Fold:
Amino acid sequence: MSINLSYLKKMLPAKTKEFIKYLLTYISRISYYGIRCREGNRNLIVLRDGYRPTFFGYHDKTPFSADNSKVLAMSINASDTESESECTPMKLGYFIRNEKGEFENNFIPFAETTTWCWQQGCMLQWYPLDANSKVIFNALVDGAYGSVMFDIDKGSVARQYEYPIYSVDPTGMLACTLNFSRLGRLRPGYGYRLLQDNYVGERAPKNDGLFVFDLKRGKRDLLVSLADLAEEVGDSNSQHYVNHATFSPDGRRIIFFHLWARNKKQIRLSRTCQLDPFTGQWSEIEADRTISHYCWRDRSSFIATTLDKTGKCKYSLYNLSDQTRTDIGLPFNTDGHPMFHPIDKNILITDTYPDKRRDQILFVAEMDTKEARRITALYSPFKYRGQVRCDLHPRWDRYGRQVCFDTTHNNRRELCILDLT
Structure:
């Protein structure tokens, strides 16, 4: 008598399937391989604000100050497994190195905000023109989404802006921004839910899209409208939005995702585009493959995790000068969050999503040899899934000696630092 596993899987109650999944994960974790896989954890430096969930956010910016003496972090006094905790009061602060060059587990707060999400926080980052004392982050300004430049040394607000930031260009002159309410509505975990989307009834509004504003004058310009983006793909019946907009190292280009949610099942389609922030000229980079995460390598190239039409995930290098895409051949077949070494652009750090043991793996890879070295594996409890998941989002320090990442392997959200020298 044969057993139809597919039929059995469909017939099992959800709680039973959840229990079986948990049991198999536990067996795998206590196996010899599961124990060996996590041997690197013993060298972790764990940083947190007491017992409060503590993290930094995304992988596209470093939390380390220019002199490497401080590392930024955020903490909340709410459950870190509930999506409803987003936009509750959050403390912003940092940890400092002692005289021995080691980070002390002493969170030093300097400000608060209520505009944040689980995946990207409040966009807290060092201001490029003074990356030892000034930071910029999103907050409510006069009852609307805005941003604040804060001087940590003086303990005071240096300037407020009436627009939130998504990213700041490396020259410190411009910032790009978007509709965070729309982003939060169409991509939960990435935007904010405090204020209603003013264009909730419009599928592709002509007055919404990707904006750039001058950090000196505070003037904002709409450079790419959702209406124009929707018209080019010929889909006016979907909900359009933009996400993941970052400047090139020289500040002359912006890469961004154009996404649209189709029908009630919220089937998400996307393409990747580039924009000149000074002329407003934009063009499509990739539409055949889905780009999930990317990181700039230099002013005209970036690496990305791509999903082809067969469902295979690859690490690909895009050259914007000659408009080429090259699959690098790194030994990964899963998605990750890459970041290039700050000095040696042949080296990158990346991670994985939880495997069958619920382990998230951290790798250092070399582009020329196509070799990857497993650094550590960190357990992600079942309760951290979906919108409240905690990706590692590895980030280099300023000299490429240490990496910082978010983790839940101790059953709470924490910031960790690992020395790679």
